[in-house]
Amino acid sequence: MTIEPYDSGDLPEHKPRRSDVDPKAAKRAERQVGFLFIASGLASAAFIVAYIVTPVDKEMPLPGFGSTNASNLLLGITMGLALFLIGAAAIHWAKKLMPDVEVVQERSPESSEAEHRDALLDEYRRGIDESGVKRRPFILGSMAAALGLAGLPAVVLLRDLGPLPADALTKTMWERGMHILIAETEQKIRPEDMQVGTLISAVPEGIDLVMEEAGNLNELAKSAVMLIRMDPAEIVADQTPEGKEPWSYEGILCFSKICTHVGCPLGLYEQLTHHMLCPCHQSTFDLADAGNVIFGPSSRSLPQLAITVDEDGYLIAREGFAEPVGPSFWERG
Ligand code: FES
């Protein structure tokens, strides 16, 4: 389908732009567009530099507004500039160099017949020719560079997701021989300190040092356990694998305190039934029966920590946890 020039009738005659009649003006406009794209690329690069070198907590004065976070301000300015300059270049390109003719385009029937599709393709190709993209490699190159660089800040920002977790999701700090401490007082525990029916929230020995070094509560959140003492005759089953030393000690069992649904801390213990209820969504675990789920949305029993006593009679971990603690996106082997 060809597009016929529009007969403007009584309307003022359409005047060509300077860049339509003056090759020098067209060349100048081409350079301007290219430089706008290049400036956008430089702004994207400045964003990356600002992201790397500006400390996240640095404040800078902002006249009339007191002070503001330097990192946010610089990232906002550079990112805004990069996007603005791409838009400005595209508009300048369209206004100065794209075809400037008034035409009437006839509406075709809605069904798209083969001949119309071919015509559309011809039109598309003609548009590319007329836009001068092929004749203006400088614009094309600078635009490609600007658009490519504009996406880079998003890639750099992935760094804010933090370091790769390595085995942080599957391991806790529990290890063979580590003392089990009362969470409140960080004292070691002897089996005789616990009466039948007692539940104690506990943490691994050295948790205070780890928290001091790491500066966060992640390890504490993962390593929190609870000790429960019950009459050995009431224990239906624990998670001791066949042929291994028992994971419980004289009726004392140790389970992760982290719910296997979405990770709330457990604590509502029914002494008579040995049921542990999660306050978040009511998953219920039977601690006398290997920590199995008997109600609620959780799909995985509570991981059990194998325990024993050291030569001084204090409770210690026999091994680390045999499986990841916490939410049950983990599959048991
Ligand atoms: S977190 Fe425990 S039931 Fe949902």
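^ FE2/S2 (inorganic) cluster complex. The helical segments are 18-21, 23-53, 70-96, 114-131, 137-156, 207-214, 218-223. The mean pLDDT is 89.
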